Amino acid sequence: MDDNVVPQQIIKLLQDKSQDKKQLGCQQLKQLVQSYAQSGKELLIKQIIETLKIKFTSSSQLYIKRQGMFALQTVAEILVKEYPQLAERCVKDLTQPILECLNDKEDKVRQYAVECLLQLTKIMKTMILLNFNEIFDYQLGRSAEQENQIVQAMFLLDQQLKNQVQIAVQEKFLDPGKLCYFNLNSFMIQLQSKLKTRVTYVRQFLLGWIKFLNQCHNNDLYIYFPMILEGIFMMLGESNKEVRNGADLQANEFLKQVEIKVNLDQRVNEQIIEILLKICQMKGNQNNYAKLNSLLWIFEYLRVFQQELEEEQKGKLGLQHSPSHVRSEEYLRSNTSPIQKNQMQQYLGGFESPIRKTILNSLSQILGPILILLSHEEEEIRKAAQKTNELLLKVMERVKNQSIEFINIVPTIKEMLTDKKSNTAESALIWMKHLLEIYSESLFPTIEDILTKLIDKLADSESAIVQNIMDVLANISMHSQYFEIVIDKILIMLHKIQEQSEKKGDLIFKKLCSLLNPQKVYFTITAKLLEMYSNNDVIFISNTVQILTNLLISEKELQNLRNILRNLKHEKDEKQRQHNQEIFETLYKTFCYNSMSVITLSLLSEEYELAYKIIISFSEVEVNECILSEIAQLINVLETPVFIFLRLQLLEYDSHPFLMKCLFGLMMLLPQGSAFNTLRQRLKNVSNTQIQSLQQDKNMETEEFLDISKLLSQFREIRLQCINQESKQKDQR
């Protein structure tokens, strides 16, 4: 740089404290700049500015610094007024020395710098925005300024800059071909990085500018939401109330733009959804309000899509006249961005809507965080997540017949099935049920893994979730190739948790019978019990048969099976009678592993002679407390509504002699106690004459079709097996 570019005489005049000499110095400086500008010597003008920086604004003396700032204003004034194009290229050079003074330790220097920058803004007007990003950066650095005069000057500077931005934007709007000094895209990139701050006063300053820009651009910042939304949401956890409320208001203002502009740009939509989901998954209670707002935003996107689907389904005006589409048309007419116009015209021309693509492409990413938040500790977040989840299910229901695959959400649901929080797992089960109903064949390759996760969940879950798990298992079981696999896995699971098997088994078997064919369920369970455990755990078989027996005599879903057994001896049709007989014999073999159950089955089927002989056979073995307890339970069962027919048959003693013998036999087996007294009370009105007739009329029973001797022999064999195996099992334990 030429040290003599600014004559020493001018420098001395500018440094003089005399006002007249300073003015003379400024006049000569102006003439010097004009002479160089007229000759097109841009480099020399920049050297003049650099000289003023070195000789003046970088000085340690306050007075000299201030004189340098005045000199820079003089240069700016003449350039803007007479050589605007040259002035444009010198904006950074003119503002940089003053900006550096903003970091000075002296309050007065900073004050003069802000005031000088304010004057430069007034002189250069919108042109100063060519270096706006750097000016903004320095402003941000001084936003915590405490000195009153500096604060006031900073406020005035901020207002002046906003005025210039607004003028530049309006000029561009009125004349799209005109050069705009304000680069919104560049500024938004800078703003995005600044929004990461956690400093309260900086956040306040940034919110002020975001609010201003949104108003200045007529609420048209949607395409920039991916840059600024996360920063605003993070302010929702700010301890400072003013910042928190400001961020909340701004987020709500932005939310209003969603319905209008979701069909402008799929990429922007997806970026926003990604940010919202990121916030939903953040840790820490300080982010709870941000999570809640993210859920509200996600819900709004889904709501707009749902609205579009409803309009499409109605078919009255078609997709092109859905509310979001109409608003987008209105927006297009007033928007000046060629890129956005092109995108919007493509959509209006019949392309699949961006919001549709966004939601369907993002469904698997949305579902996971929503399911997790269903179990959040905050009730308000749980409710918002529930509301969003319900809307997601409605969306899936509406598009299920439109050749849209949701298989990509299966991994998410499978992962959520193992969640330890009940609300999350329960909702994942509901999703799995819906998927199985719609895409059962597509899910076949993953069924084994799904089954494993479901069964594991079944073992750990409370009754409320068991119901939902069984809904899903029943859906899987409807496909013949998986029915027996499901039963196998359920029995294996119950075998592992035998301490809970009675309560859980009751819930599981009851639900299976309500959702599937009860007869098939019973046949498969009884057959599998023998196949899997007859050689190693007769106690488990006995306990499971007890559960099946309790359900058989109490549940409405099993009424048809009860009726088949009741009509075993009364069926007229030969073919049906043989079928009923096969049913009895199939159940009988497994029920023999539980004394109470096999007698109950026989009594329910009116096989009184068989029941009597089984009872009499107890004399052949040592009757332990377990058997006596089972018989006592049986007496209580006989008092249930299902056995009203049996109690009435006591009046027909001559037609059912073995029934009387059964009941007396049971009473003789029981020690005196409550069960003994209950049965004795029932039988006490039977006269001695009636009892005697039991010995006289031996052939009054209905014709017998079963091979009672074979069945009795089978019972004895199984009972002996049980006695031996129970002894071994007890020794092992």
Automatic annotation (TrEMBL):
Q: What is the lineage of its organism?
A: Eukaryota, Sar, Alveolata, Ciliophora, Intramacronucleata
The Gene Ontology biological process annotation of the record reads:
phosphatidylinositol biosynthetic process
Q: Name any GO cellular component annotation.
A: PAS complex
**Which domain of life does the protein's organism represent?**
Eukaryota
Q: Which chain positions lie within coiled-coil regions? A: 374-402, 551-581
Residue stretches making up the Vacuolar protein 14 C-terminal Fig4-binding domain: 500-686
Record localization: Endomembrane system
Matches recorded under InterPro entries: Vac14, VAC14_Fig4p-bd
Q: In its UniProt entry, what is this protein called?
A: Vacuolar protein 14 C-terminal Fig4-binding domain-containing protein
Provide this UniProt record's keywords sorted from A to Z.
Coiled coil, Membrane, Repeat
Chief place where the protein resides:
membrane
**Keyword Coiled coil, does the record have it?**
yes
